[in-house]
Amino acid sequence: MNLPSPLLETLAGQQKLEIRRVRPVSGGSINQAAKLHTNKGELFVKWNESADPDMFGKESRGLRLLRNAETDLTIPKVLAYNDQKGDPPGFLLMEFLTPAERNDLDDNQSSARFGEQLALLHQHTDKKFGLDHDNYIGRLPQSNQPHSSWVEFFIHERIGPQIKRATDRQVLDSTLLTHWENLAAHLKDIFPDSDPALLHGDLWSGNYFFDSNGKAVLVDPAVYYGHPEMELSFTRMFGGFSGSFYDSYNSVNPFEPGFAERVPIYNLYPLLVHANLFGGHYATEVQSILKRY
Ligand code: ADP
Prior knowledge:
This protein is α+β, with helices and mostly antiparallel strands. It has helices at residues 5-13, 54-68, 107-121, 150-168, 176-190, 228-238, 243-252, 259-266, 268-278, 280-290; strands at residues 19-24, 32-38, 41-48, 78-82, 90-95, 135-137, 140-142, 197-199, 208-210, 216-218, 224-226.
């Protein structure tokens, strides 16, 4: 695998890297990624020649927020990024964290530790839902205007912009807007209260792995202060989180009664994002949830 020449030149010039070997890393949904063997050890770089490079600056800020929370979750340290248009392309350079071989792990123990540490991350709170800057979810913009109420935040910063995008582009039929308005009017009776909690914001099984010490490594965040049930709901959308993860989360931050029934409502957000990015059955799922209201 070859890195684009302007990226190679920047890494060599600006970062004084001698790159000895480049190995592609798969698993991302947006960017190209590689493991670099260098004079400064093993590094991870991801880049994108077409998407908005601002994505990488925002991702770097999100990773820093998660690192600063000082839980026992491992968050990769960023060494450099480019968030400007032109050459080199947008990129993010960070330490490479080695995933464990599956049979090196006691899965239950690692998952339990992960659940406990995620619950501790969620104990980092702020005064308002949102963040002091907007960022991205996948390659779509994510608005984080602060709100005092979770319901208002969910309506105006999460579902509102995505449902507008989907109906404007005919990914979804505009008749669904009436169903959404019906649901939105009831949300204050559906969502339990919560303090605004620090969330990874895009926590599916492709965005975590265990290192050889069994510690969870979290990558590719879309950070904001939100309702912890939003994060837990998304972990259930594609699976890949074990029973011991949820049990141990629950022992630190107990689930509120009725959580399971709220999951499809929270997951309207990632489903809409996926419908806007990929269309297809995600749009059908959004439709079947909204039609209940
Ligand atoms: P994308 O932005 O394209 O979704 P990701 O950030 O999810 O890309 O990275 C792609 C894959 O690379 C992830 O699934 C993860 O397994 C791996 N990865 C990400 N960051 C690191 C890192 N710092 N060290 C090792 N592997 C990483």
